[in-house]
Specification:
Structural class: alpha+beta
Number of strands: 20
Shape: globular
Low-confidence stretches: 1-9, 358-365
Distance between the termini: 41 Å
Order of helices and strands: EEEHEEEHHHEHEHEEHHEEEEEEEEEE
Largest sheet: 6 strands, mixed
């Protein structure tokens, strides 16, 4: 029986032990997850980790080797892409260059037999929703990159899908426009209550748009959770390093109570959640914002500035220390430290994380 679009499960996506193999190569290895209706979940990971293949299996563009895919409470594992009530915004936008904006947006409904007048009316509505009113007669070549991206979204929304899929939608835009467009996508998703599966390799983008993030590595899920959970409590060194910049060093942990411990890094100490790690040597991930750079002193970790890069609002530093190389960011641009300078490092509590040793994941690299 077809699920009503207003049902709480109408946009729910469920993967149950889904694998995708190409001959002897396993691209996705028994992956299981759930995307609730109205939720935006991002698949994040390095190139070749399986995230785009996973998205294409949601869309029905790649057949599943083993496992089960359901959308809206229905098993769609064997259904074709046009039978899944999903729509996809591609990295290239895939707009027809010879068609106007309106013709591009109308193409889906018209090709499926919808009344042309009604399709045009719905297309105009979606264009207005995305701030494209008055651009309906232009060709894609007459639009900016951001406008083309909005047209691609409008063309997907006009089909009124249960699930909207994004495959690296902002990768062709410059940094400033990427920030603007990710805010627009998030605002649109929340305003319309859309169920969205979003693929990117950009950590900042994932942190900005997501309700939850699924980090993939070597064809499996490395960790999933809220942006804050993944940033502040990474499961292992891979996730710690992938969810934003982090310097990985060795420290020594002394457990203080049931929840916290004290990590010693040379002469400096930081009180942090011990996350059930045993006392003794541990891996420690240190975020750049946790590092304060000052003058050398007995209660600071001695460091030498290897590199200093002025970026306008901040200075990025690479520091050589007795415990390893640290990457730091300072907002003090008025009196930067020069390469070769001797400095002292202290740590804030926030941004210092005890992480288990990196575990090996099955699957291809």
């Amino acid at each position: 029986m077809k699920v009503d679009k207003k049902s709480p499960t109408s946009g729910e996506v469920v993967f149950e032990r889904v694998s995708k193999r190409y001959g002897d190569v396993t691209a996705v290895d028994e992956v299981s997850f759930r995307v609730a209706a109205g939720e935006l979940v991002t698949l994040l990971g390095p190139s070749g980790c399986g995230k785009t293949t996973t998205l294409r299996m949601v869309a029905g563009l790649e057949p599943v080797t083993t496992g089960r895919v359901s959308i809206g409470g229905e098993d769609v594992t064997l259904r074709a892409a046009n039978e899944r009530n999903v729509s996809m915004v591609f990295q290239s936008y895939a707009l027809f260059p010879h068609m106007t904006v309106l013709e591009n947006v109308c193409y889906g409904p018209v090709s499926m037999g919808a009344d042309k007048a009604k399709a045009r009316e719905l297309a105009q509505q979606k264009l207005g929703m995305l701030g494209l009113t008055g651009l309906d007669k232009r060709l894609p070549s007459e639009l900016s990159g951001g406008q083309q991206q909005r047209v691609a979204v409008a063309r997907s929304l006009v089909l009124e899908p249960a699930v909207l899929l994004f495959d690296e939608p902002l990768s062709n835009l410059d940094a400033r426009l990427r920030r603007q467009m990710r805010e627009e996508i998030r605002e649109l998703q929340q305003r319309l209550g859309l169920t969205v599966v979003y693929v990117t390799h950009d950590q900042a983008e994932a942190l900005a748009v997501s309700d939850r993030i699924i980090v993939m590595n070597r064809a499996v899920i490395a960790q999933e959770g809220s942006p804050r959970e993944l940033y502040e409590s990474p499961r292992d060194s891979f996730v710690a390093g992938f969810m934003g910049d982090a310097s990985r060093v060795r420290g020594r942990l002394e457990r203080l109570d049931a929840a916290t411990g004290e990590v010693a890094l040379g002469p400096i100490r930081a009180r942090v959640p011990h996350r059930d790690a045993p006392e003794g040597p541990v891996d420690v991930a240190i975020r750049p914002e946790a590092i304060a750079i000052g003058s050398p002193s007995d209660d600071a970790l001695p460091a030498t500035v290897r590199k200093a890069s002025y970026l306008g609002g901040v200075v990025e530093y690479t520091l050589d220390t007795p415990v390893g190389v640290l990457f730091a960011i300072s907002s003090d641009v008025e009196s930067p430290h020069a390469p070769g300078a001797s400095v002292g490092v202290t740590l804030a509590r926030h941004g210092v994380v005890v992480v288990p040793a990196l575990t090996k994941s099955s699957g291809p690299g």
